[in-house]
Amino acid sequence: ITLTAGTCFLMWLGEEITDFGIGNGISIIIFAGIIAQIPSQIVQTTKLLQVGEIGILPFVSLLIISIVVIGGVIAIQKGQRRIPVQYAKRVIGRRMYGGQGTHIPLRVNQAGVIPIIFASAILLFPATIAQFFQNLAFMRSMSEALSPGRPLYLILYAFLIVVFTFFYTAITFNPANMADNMKKYGGFIPGIRPGKNTTIYIDHIMTRITLSGALFLAIIAILPNILIKVTGITTFSFGGTSLLIMVGVALETVQQIESHLLMRHYEGFIKK
Questions:
Q1: Residue 96, pLDDT above cutoff 60
Q2: Which residue from 130, 119, 128, 141 is spatially nearest to 239, judged by alpha carbons?
Q3: What is the reported pTM?
Q4: Domain boundaries 70-263, CATH class
Q5: Rounded average pLDDT over 141-167
Q6: Using N-to-C axis directions, what is the helix angle for 196-231 and 240-263, rounded to 10°?
Q7: CB 14 within 8 A of CB 33
Q8: Any idea where the domains of the chain sit in the sequence?
Q9: Which range is least confidently modeled, 19-23, 37-41, 122-126?
Q10: What was the pLDDT predicted at 159?
């Protein structure tokens, strides 16, 4: 009852933040929960560093890699491929419409954290089933092989993330509809015929972008496990999902703050 009541309260609080605050309320609550763990992790890591259980070199290496990874996540989250679009001129009455150029922004990470969540859930299912059949040697072996951090687990984890990234992108992104809408309003991609050729071109570009985003998601997801094995530091680490949520929520909140400032004719506090 307490757990259910607490969940309902958090959902209500998240909706209130969304309606009367800035950003997505539920995402900000999750973001706050992740951030709240950082101070204790820093304290634990510092204590182990002082007593000599953690070497200076592994600690500095982990710190540098973490900064580089966070920078990479920011770049991928904000990264997009812009496809130029030109609109033909149309005369309606005495006015001329169209003729201007614009672009279609295709995000590198179109799927967000969804593929990581799906892959984690699927890999958790066989291990959970195997726990009920510990008397069978095959089930025990499967449970051990699919334990987080094991080579087979990491390989399957990365593979499923790539598969679900393409699957989710295919569901949420429809190049045929995009090409039809462009054709309807007189838009075209320079050098590409409207219609089917435009659909094929957009789909080709999106496939290449999705592959890059999928490989990046897979690397981010398995990197914490690799760093733990290499450095031996288990007190300070981020999961791929946590890192993507942190960066995504932070970027979204900053964008909304700047939008509110611009609407009120104030200068944004972040210089581009």
A1: no
A2: 119
A3: 0.78
A4: mainly alpha
A5: 85
A6: 120
A7: no
A8: 70-263
A9: 19-23
A10: 92
